[in-house]
């Protein structure tokens, strides 16, 4: 299941960060924290927000970046899981925002696609960072991988800009983006797709997946899935809690 935020999709499609001028600074623009219209998509990462703010603050091209981003945001497509469908969204952006992209590129002087550092491209070896933002350099292949994509080494996935261990409680979920592993948490537990970095975090069996809130229902990890809990005849929540008045947890069921 993909967990791409809309800005991450845009950044992966077009190397926006390379376009901003060196004297740009963050603006705090609210549009940079927009997580998109898909209900289950996570908020943009801190690096995405800073990248976006830098673009909009560019004294020369910021207004053109805004026009492009506004167009791109409007193209978001959601999948059945309620998160951004990166393939469909990229296709819509390419089909409908080409003119805006070209104007921003012409303003910035970036008319060629970078040859390294971006998802799918070789890792850079010129002394700069091997890969941009949250993208990871897979040392085994010297390729940049997107967040949530499996790295070559067994039991590792791209998370927070590094190929690291995955699949155990508290670690990133394994192979969520490319779906090559049917069990995202092979060491046990459930994948909470909205927790942690893009791709989700493994939650231990019996642990809380989602906390209760104004727009969320508490869920608990049971037999590999995050399920609702606490109501009468539901499974008990973490630590044996039940939310219904007078209900108590008996044999892992609220009664």
Short characterization:
This protein is an alpha+beta fold and 255 residues long. It has helices spanning 6-13, 46-56, 62-73, 86-96, 98-108; strands at 136-138, 143-145, 156-159, 162-165, 190-192, 201-203, 219-222, 225-228, 249-250, 253-254. The longest helix is centred in the N-terminal third of the chain and has 12 residues, at 62-73.
Give a written overview of the molecule.
- This protein has 255 residues and is of the alpha+beta class.
- The chain is 21% helix and 13% strand.
- It has 5 helices and 10 strands; from the N terminus they run αααααββββββββββ.
- The protein has a two-stranded antiparallel ribbon. A two-stranded antiparallel ribbon has the order 3-4. The chain has a two-stranded antiparallel sheet with strand order 5-6.
- Helix 1 (6-13) packs across helix 4 and helix 3 packs antiparallel against helix 5 (98-108).
- The two termini are 34 Å apart.
- The model is unreliable at 13-29 (pLDDT under 50).
List the helices and strands and how they pair.
Elements: H1 6-13, H2 46-56, H3 62-73, H4 86-96, H5 98-108, E1 136-138, E2 143-145, E3 156-159, E4 162-165, E5 190-192, E6 201-203, E7 219-222, E8 225-228, E9 249-250, E10 253-254
Antiparallel strand pairs: 1-2, 3-4, 5-6, 7-8, 9-10
Helix pairs in contact: 1-4, 3-5
Task: From the structure above, extract its key features.
single chain; 255 residues; alpha+beta; two-stranded antiparallel sheet; 5 helices; 10 strands; 13% strand; globular
């Amino acid at each position: 299941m993909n967990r791409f935020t809309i800005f991450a999709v845009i950044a992966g499609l077009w190397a926006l960060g390379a376009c901003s001028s060196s004297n740009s600074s963050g603006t705090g623009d609210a549009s940079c924290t927009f997580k998109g219209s898909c209900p289950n998509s996570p908020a943009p990462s801190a690096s995405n927000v800073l990248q976006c703010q830098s673009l909009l603050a560019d004294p020369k091209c910021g207004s053109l970046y805004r026009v492009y981003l506004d167009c791109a945001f409007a193209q978001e497509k959601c999948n059945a899981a309620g998160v951004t469908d990166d393939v469909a969204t990229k296709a819509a952006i390419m089909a409908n925002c080409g003119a805006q992209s070209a104007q921003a590129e012409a303003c910035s002087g970036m008319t060629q696609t970078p040859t390294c550092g971006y998802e799918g491209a070789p890792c850079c070896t010129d002394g700069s960072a091997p890969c941009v933002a949250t993208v990871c350099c897979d040392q085994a292949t010297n390729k940049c991988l997107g967040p949530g994509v499996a790295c070559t080494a067994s039991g590792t996935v791209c998370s927070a800009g590094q190929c690291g261990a995955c699949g155990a409680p508290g670690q990133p979920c394994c192979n969520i983006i490319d779906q090559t592993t049917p069990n995202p948490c092979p060491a046990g537990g459930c994948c909470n797709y909205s927790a942690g970095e893009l791709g989700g975090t493994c939650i231990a069996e019996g642990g809380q997946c989602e906390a209760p809130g104004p727009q969320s229902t508490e869920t608990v990890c049971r037999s590999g899935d995050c399920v609702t809990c606490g109501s009468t005849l539901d499974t008990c929540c973490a630590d044996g809690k039940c939310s219904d008045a007078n209900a108590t947890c008996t044999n892992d069921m609220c009664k």
